[in-house]
Amino acid sequence: MTTVLYPGSFDPIHNGHVEIVETASRLFDRVVVATLYNPQKHSGLFDLAERSALIEASLDHLDNVSVTSFSSLVVDLAREVKADFIVKGLRAVSDFESELQMAQTNTTISGVDTLFIPSASSHSFLASKLIREIARFSGDITAMVPPAVAEALQHKFADSNEENPT
Ligand code: PNS
């Protein structure tokens, strides 16, 4: 039985992430999706509990996928969930440099290897940062995220506009 760990910020999960999990769930017996606190991304939009709930709602159709969150090294989580590999998605060459650096670092400190799954060209432009920005100004993000995420983004920015009326 092969278990893989798919870590990310997922703030929020979008259709490109869902596609990577769908591919991993076909290729491997068990997929653990983990949303991690990223110290390099100081302010998140959704907290870890909200991100996990949105990931669960978006991956409900996949039986061999579980969701967790973690605030430590990804390799420690990999050990804890008995992952054979870490899985990451690659959208474009621009992702490769930093992903390769993280993969090599993680292998050096733990022996856990990372496998890369290429994103479909139809999803390769998707980025949570841009989706947050579009949603903040009431743009249409429904083609880029699962329905539960679109709804959560609308609520999040409706709430913050009520708190900070212009
Ligand atoms: O979705 P992202 O922002 O590309 O995810 C990056 C993430 C969260 C997977 C990465 O920052 C990470 O692994 N953070 C956990 C801390 C850690 O293990 N750092 C060492 C990485 S070599």
Automatic annotation (TrEMBL):
Pathway note: Cofactor biosynthesis; coenzyme A biosynthesis; CoA from (R)-pantothenate: step 4/5
Q: What class of enzyme is it?
A: transferase
Q: Where is this site: Transition state stabilizer?
A: H17
- Listed binding positions for substrate are S9, K41, V74, K88
- Matches recorded under InterPro entries: Cyt_trans-like, PPAT, Rossmann-like_a/b/a_fold
Q: Does the keyword Transmembrane helix apply?
A: no
Q: Where does ATP bind?
A: S9, F10, H17, G89, L90, R91, E99, H123, S124, F125, L126, A127, S128, K129
Q: Which family does it belong to?
A: Belongs to the bacterial CoaD family.
Question: PANTHER family, from UniProt?
Answer: PHOSPHOPANTETHEINE ADENYLYLTRANSFERASE
Subunit organization: Homohexamer.
Provide the protein name.
Answer: Phosphopantetheine adenylyltransferase
Source organism per UniProt: Candidatus Neomicrothrix parvicella RN1
Gene assigned in the entry: coaD
